Amino acid sequence: MKPAGRLLAAWLLAAAGSVAGANSGTGSTGSGTAAPVPGVSNEPLAHQHYMLQCQGCHRPDGTGTMATAPPMTGIVARFLEVPGGREYLARVPGVATAALTDAQLAELLNWTLYRFDAAHVPAGFKPYTATEMGTLRRHPLRTEAKAVRSALMTELDRRQAAR
Length: 163
Ligand code: HEC
What we know:
Layout: H1 3-23, H2 43-53, H3 55-58, H4 85-91, H5 93-96, H6 102-117, H7 130-137, H8 145-162
Helix pairs in contact: 1-2, 2-6, 6-7
Heme C binds at residues 53-54, 56-58, 68-70, 72, 76, 89, 92-95, 98, 108-109, 112, 145-146, 149.
């Protein structure tokens, strides 16, 4: 019995629909068709899950805020470059504990990587599958997430400096 919650959900669904419509490229300009996202069979649904479960902390454009979540835009896929990074992205609390099925969550994480940081997705990247996600999320990071994150960031910086 939370009408305000239902209204918000309805608004978000409507917003998701209009974004999907904007991306579907039915116009005659020919420039509106977004490239399909690898490992995502239903992009509007993945976007909707992001809006409902993630953007409160990460913001609609993935930039986050000092108070809620670190920025993902232009950086999140870089974790895939370092050992343990792939696992980290699936085990981070906000991902691992989301109220979504393994398949939905795998699609959402693939969507997040390509929509916010396609430039850094490594060439040979294999999208997360439901099976992999199911295994990884069963071992969610808890209080140690920040320490794991900063160790990965240190390794990223080290590699960057060595280039
Ligand atoms: C309550 C706020 C919150 C919510 C909701 C949330 N996150 Fe996060 N997210 C964080 C914080 C804070 C971190 C940094 C690691 C940590 O301390 O947990 C993070 C880290 C991440 C990371 C790793 C990248 C990095 O820079 O560390 C990914 C990927 C991510 N979140 C995706 C998601 C997705 C996808 C959802 C929705 C299913 C989501 N998050 C929901 C707060 C949140």
